Amino acid sequence: MKAFVVTRYSKTEKLQLTDVPRPAPQAGEVLLEVHATGLNVLDAKVRNGEFKLILPYKPPFVLGHDVAGVVAAVGAGVSQFKIGDEVYARPADQHIGTFAEFVAVPQADVARKPANLSINEAGAVPLVALTAWQALVEVAQLKKGQKVFIQAGSGGVGTVAIQLAKHLGAYVATTTSAANADWVKRLGADLVIDYKTQDFETLLSGYDVVLNSQDTPTLQKSLRILRPGGVAVSITGPPDGTFARAAGLPWYLRLVFGLLSFGIRRQARKLGVRYTFLFMRADGRQLGEITRLIEAGIIRPVVDKVFPFAQTNEALAYVESGRARGKVVVQVQ
């Protein structure tokens, strides 16, 4: 089968389109014919080698973290899906490889495709929607009447997080460019801050939750807009020792991540707030909950551009440019 492969970690070297063996589903796995795959900043970071300590993939390997497609075969013990089912998933770490014609995925990571989405729209959903769900529902436990600051509201995670937060009954502030202000308001944002001309720290205070997707200086400012007892959930780091322990990483990485996050954790303690690093995980059950929200019209994925499979490198470069509004999708089949 055809697949786009990381031949070596590099910020400049393109993915290589090559022939690789078609995977066979193992016990508990389903083989998916990939029809669409969403692209994420995570893909670029993995290719660049920025996550080698956490995810030590050995090149050559197939990249890709989102899939929507059709079940082509099932392994032993699979009872939830059958051949021909339309499904979508964010494959678990060590099972990635959706920039390909087929991918084998644990059935626990898979959910049925929302009936009201096209296959390309479905390919845009899993990683960003699970990130928003785990940040706002699982970690922050966002409640009706609370205030949440979601950074980069026009990005892949931001567009879903705004819609989810409004469904949960929160007041939502976000940042974007002036050109996107009215658009993110239609997604559900109550207060839109132009990040080019306005300083959110001077405009926001007493917030219950921050979803941080930017750099460390932005995270430091975000801690200061929280009320005492509030929580900042960061999906861009720095990783902390709690994450390292939960991920089962060796002791020396727990020490490294503890040192990397020491300044942020100390600042959070002084302010009486909580800091949590989130490295989202695959979860088919949660994806099923998201499916119900999509089918109810509560969440709608935003697709900026769809590229053909042959232009996967160009699609990834567009994601890295930061110009995408919502998600970028590659149509494989």
From TrEMBL:
InterPro entries: ADH-like_N, ER, GroES-like_sf, NAD(P)-bd_dom_sf, YIM1/Zinc_Alcohol_DH_Fams. One of its GO terms (molecular function) is oxidoreductase activity. Residues 11-330 form the Enoyl reductase (ER) domain. Gene3D superfamilies: Medium-chain alcohol dehydrogenases, catalytic domain, NAD(P)-binding Rossmann-like Domain. SUPFAM superfamilies: GroES-like, NAD(P)-binding Rossmann-fold domains. It holds the Pfam family ADH_N. Coiled coil: none annotated. SMART domains: PKS_ER (SM00829). This is NADP-dependent oxidoreductase. It comes from Hymenobacter perfusus.
